[in-house]
Specification:
86% of the residues lie in helices and 0% in strands. The protein is mainly α. The chain has one domain. The protein is globular, with a radius of gyration of 20 Å.
């Protein structure tokens, strides 16, 4: 009987561990996808590449998504080093990141492209460039401050090697989804229309706003606990 009970407990623990890893992987993917929101970039991508041939547009898109992916990986690798060098605590970063997410989410709820991702000046300047793949498409349109913050927060929250793998897998998956969406920009705009894109942007905005609020709560909770402990001494 004890052996059977121990076996059951072992299987339950394994199931819970797997559930935790899948939950973190899902959180990583949905958070990154919502903040990148490739659907909102489709009209601007079409505008920036309106004079391009199909071959030029494909090359520009390839440079754009590759740039975005390398920026995400770079900040994922350097995140902990940046925290150490500048003396930034993870709680402070969670609060700051949450406020950024909240601002982006509010813009998305109004079906507006957030100025945190790319300003009108950057988009206007980009439209006059011969090659818009690296900037403004790769950065900041696909990978902006919000995406960078999300990557760094996710890496800092990765408690196991499996969690860390999940973050990098999410970056790869979001990059692939972004490439697919932007590659089919013409069909997507024709299918959904501006109204449909606005609805999708608002739904993504709701998710981003909730993530932002949760991030602020996660950052403030330990800070408030420490303040109360110090006040009780």
């Amino acid at each position: 009987m004890p052996a059977a009970w121990n076996g059951l407990r072992s299987r339950m623990a394994g199931t819970m561990h797997l559930s935790d890893e899948l939950g973190f992987a899902l959180l990583s993917f949905t958070s990154l996808l919502a903040i990148v929101n490739p659907l909102s970039a489709t009209p601007m991508f079409l505008a920036l590449t309106s004079e391009y041939t199909p071959a030029q547009r494909r090359r520009t898109l390839q440079r754009g998504v590759l740039t975005a992916f390398l920026v995400m990986v770079g900040f994922a690798l350097l995140g902990r080093w940046i925290f150490t060098v500048y003396g930034i605590t993870i709680n402070a970063f969670r609060i700051a990141g949450g406020l950024i997410f909240f601002g982006i989410g509010l813009d998305m709820l109004q079906a507006k492209r957030s100025r945190v991702k790319a300003t009108e000046e950057e988009e206007s300047e980009g439209s006059m460039k011969e090659d818009v793949g690296i900037t403004p498409l790769g950065m900041p349109m696909i990978t902006g401050p919000g995406t960078i913050t999300t990557v760094m927060v996710l890496v800092s929250q990765a408690e196991t090697r499996a969690h860390l793998v999940a973050v990098y897998a999410a970056m790869v998956a979001v990059t692939i989804v972004t490439w697919i969406v932007l590659a089919g920009s013409n069909r997507i705009v024709s299918l959904f229309g501006q109204t449909g894109l606005n609805v999708m942007t608002r739904l993504m905005g709701l998710l981003v706003t909730v993530v932002g609020v949760q991030s602020v709560i996660d950052g403030l909770s330990p800070v408030l606990v420490n303040i109360l402990k110090m006040a009780g001494r």
